[in-house]
Design brief:
Strand order of the largest sheet: 4-3-5-12-6
CATH superfamily of the largest domain: Periplasmic binding protein-like II
Mean pLDDT: 88
CATH class of the largest domain: Alpha Beta
Strand content: 15-25%
Largest sheet: 5 strands, mixed
CATH topology of the largest domain: D-Maltodextrin-Binding Protein, domain 2
Radius of gyration: 24 Å
Number of domains: 3
Number of helices: 18
Helix content: 25-40%
Length: 505
């Protein structure tokens, strides 16, 4: 059964375009009666509703809809137990995968009801249901995390590689999971750099774990991948990022798809799941360090990397709504996958709007007492703030802020400037303490960076950070500043003995 579409422009403040799909009558049989409250609790005795959810634990963009909901039992908190659901039992089944395609295959086989995946796998999921499934469609019902510019996808090289730009990869071997968002990113990035992906480099398909091993052993010159591996591999010390997907300016996301027959028969269950996701978002925003540490336990991805993506001023905002950026990401995925030959039958990218249904999410917000626009505004305002831990001054510009996560501390320490952070680090080291990680932000674009892997330009106490060496060189020439690596900054402030006035979070 297809869905009747109605478009509304209710994101007045942000000017985003929202797709809202109206519920239609149930067309499934079996399980609990979907037709109102006529079925009493006696008739539901022994009835079991399976809720099968496929997630990707290591792809931490799915954490607020996957591991956090699962491990903290948030779904069970909201599952309906009255009316037509009185007396039923729920069989909640979780399964985790390293990529989206296995989730799609199991959804097609009616073994998974709700799937969490990135934009490229999501559109393949939606198209496969349209073209292959006879009993159901797939619907895109919400966003988990996203980047309007493409941050999260990245290209990394071995740490000791001499390559500092894509041009340096000419004649080399680059691996990437074929058919992923990172695949589309690397093709565009190479073309933009004047390299022919067919002749100037050798592209091979490797999953993240294989690509990481190949980097370690020097079997490839570079590896392109999606969240979180472009940051995870450098954090683990064997890789260095030379290209961020944000440089393409092409949006990317991870989101939620559901089988239409399940959603039509049990709309209240879908709403309950989205309530759980909304609460997970709130929990993360309230305690990003604490939830990041828990996600590390659940996924094996270090808390510092989780925080880098999903924490304040992170690479991937937590906004569950479906706006113009998300629609654009899905349309672009269709166009790119078509050019890659991954979609056998032609699909008009505009058709993606027929597979988007935000009504379940809006219902979940209403029932939780949440205002739609306030949820969006909260996500946009999720930035570094407070006072500088060194000077006590207000942090006015999150893009210029810097952070330390001191070993043993539960919270991240914030600074208004890179210079203040480096001075504080010097004091910590003199006291025999160390930081697990230091964060700075690209001066031009605001992207969150690992300080040890960034390039800096210093002008006295004015310090700017850059992802790209070329950008740092340009800025240094323009301002007369001195370009240096992070170690150079530490040496510059080594003889200064500031007093840390207290960690401000």
């Amino acid at each position: 059964m297809r869905h009747l579409l109605s478009w509304s422009r209710k994101k007045v403040a942000s000017g985003l375009l929202i797709v809202s799909v109206v519920f239609v009558g149930a067309c499934s049989s079996g399980g609990v009666d979907a037709g109102g409250d006529s079925a009493g609790p006696e008739s539901n005795s022994g009835k079991v509703i399976r809720v099968a959810i496929g997630t990707q634990d290591q792809v931490i963009n799915t954490a607020v809809g996957g591991a956090t909901v699962r491990e903290l039992h948030l779904l069970e908190k909201y599952l309906p137990t009255d009316g037509k659901y009185k007396g039923v039992k729920y069989d909640v089944q979780w399964s985790s995968y390293t990529s989206g395609p296995p989730i799609t295959n199991k959804m097609l086989a009616n073994q998974i009801d709700i799937g969490l995946m990135g934009d490229f796998p999501a559109v393949i999921n939606l198209i496969k249901f349209q073209q292959e499934a006879k009993d159901a469609d797939s619907i895109f019902i919400g966003t988990l995390a996203y980047s309007p510019s493409g941050a999260g996808n990245a290209i990394v090289v071995p740490k000791d590689s001499k390559a500092t730009s894509l041009a340096d990869l000419k004649g080399g071997t680059v691996s990437v999971p074929f058919g992923s968002a990172a695949h589309g990113m690397v093709l565009k990035a190479l073309a933009d750099a004047g390299l022919d992906p067919e002749t100037d480099v050798k592209l091979i398909s490797q999953a993240p774990e294989v690509g990481g091993s190949s980097l370690r052993t020097g079997q490839i010159d570079a590896h392109a991948d999606f969240v979180p591996f472009g940051e995870l591999f450098p954090f683990r010390g064997f890789a260095r990022k030379i290209f961020d997907g944000a440089q393409t300016g092409v949006p990317t996301l991870h989101g939620i798809v559901v089988r239409s027959d399940f959603a039509e028969q049990y709309p209240e269950v879908v709403v309950a799941y989205l309530k759980a996701v909304l609460e997970a978002n709130q929990m993360f925003q309230a305690d990003p360090e604490g939830i990041s540490a828990q996600i590390e336990d659940w996924s094996g991805v270090e808390k510092e990397v989780v925080y880098m993506f999903l924490g304040p001023s992170g690479l991937q905002p937590l906004d569950p709504t479906i706006g113009e950026v998300q629609v654009s990401a899905l349309k672009n995925s269709i166009a790119t996958l078509t050019s890659l030959g991954k979609i056998e039958k032609p699909v008009d990218p505009e058709e993606v709007v027929n597979w988007i249904d935000e009504s379940y999410l809006r219902t979940a917000m209403e029932e939780l007492g949440l205002d739609y626009n306030e949820v969006i505004a909260t996500a946009e305002a999720y930035q570094i703030k407070g006072k500088d831990a060194l000077t006590g001054e207000d942090i006015k510009d999150p893009k210029l802020a810097a952070q330390l996560w001191v070993q043993g501390d539960e919270k991240v320490t914030n600074f208004a400037s890179i210079a203040n952070m480096v001075k504080a680090l010097s004091t910590l080291q003199n006291d025999g303490k160390a930081a697990d990680v230091m964060f700075v932000h690209d001066y031009n674009k605001g992207w969150k960076l690992f300080a040890e892997n960034a390039y800096f330009v210093s002008n006295g106490d004015q310090v700017a950070a850059f992802l790209l060496q070329s950008d740092a060189q340009t800025y240094a020439s323009k301002t007369g500043g001195q370009m240096t690596a992070f170690r150079g900054l530490q040496d510059l402030y080594a003889d200064r003995q500031p007093v840390l006035v207290g960690a401000q979070h």
